[in-house]
Amino acid sequence: FTILAYVLYYWAVDPFTLFLGRMLEGIGYSAVVLVSIAKLEDLVAQQKNANKSNVPARFGSSLSVGKLGHVLGPLIGGVIAAYYGLGSPFLAAVVGLGIVGMWYFFQKHNYHPLPPFRKLTWNPIPLWREYLKVKPLRGLLALVMPHQFSIAVVFAFLPLFLVEHIHLSIEQVGIILFVKEIPQLMQQLAGKLTDKWGSKKVSILGTTLSGIGMIGFAFASTFEVVLITAFVYGLGASILGIGTLAMLSGIGEKQKREATYLGTHVSISKWGAFIAFIVSGIIVEAAGMPFLFALSGTLLFIGVIVGEEKMGFRSFPTPKPRMLVNLLFHHR
Prior knowledge:
This protein is an all-alpha fold. Helix content is 80%, strand content 0%. It has helices spanning 2-11, 15-45, 55-66, 68-84, 88-105, 125-132, 135-164, 170-181, 187-197, 199-219, 223-254, 258-287, 289-311, 321-329. The longest helix is centred in the last third of the chain and has 32 residues, at 223-254. The model has no long low-confidence stretch (mean pLDDT 77).
């Protein structure tokens, strides 16, 4: 599906072809990436010598390797596009995916009996209700939905913003996207941070950094400032990703529902991106791209406030009114 999507991107001559390509790419992502993450969780958790306390660190190390393509893709794609045209990166991606797909097809695989599962249904509401009954997961969702909104905004408008408003070259845009993805290679550090601080604190930290990054994009005016801002946003996204998966894994493992919770979480959180794709164009037409980035950053900060309340956690504890009165008027 992903290969077909990139072929459509290359030959696209109208919005419908691009829409069809995005749909096929989404199907490919869902079919491969989500199942791979769930499988990775099982492999890490089932290691004979695995210590449950350092599972997030192991998980982060594994994801760092997988994110190598995310890091190198923008840099290599920007160079290819600059020298061979905007359509050439899609052809290169088709060749690369074809080679990897054939290599994986001829590898030896161990097929295991399918575990028992509940009756499948096209109605997602029961799974959504089951997910939303868990209060910490509601808090997590408050963090991730605004972040998904920001991902859609960055994906759709950041390259355009850099070219039209800051007047950067395609190569410079590729370098910025490369820098934004560099923190994905340091997810093992985010995993160790999760072991030390816990998934709640790490998720809050990641969302806060992403919010700072989005606000920074709104006010950036030079290549150097955008580089720093892109790194901060990418660092937040990397940290939040590990915190999210660690929390889902910890809660899901207790109920033997890891893959179900993961899939349901992604299903609900993606509404943030879906809404962003619908309304972002309208917002840009009405108020401009800097306002859209600032709005996305504000939503992330609101998500931090709501998420902390749902998780029962405060990064900056608010003093009780009586404590403030005693502090101000106690003269002894």
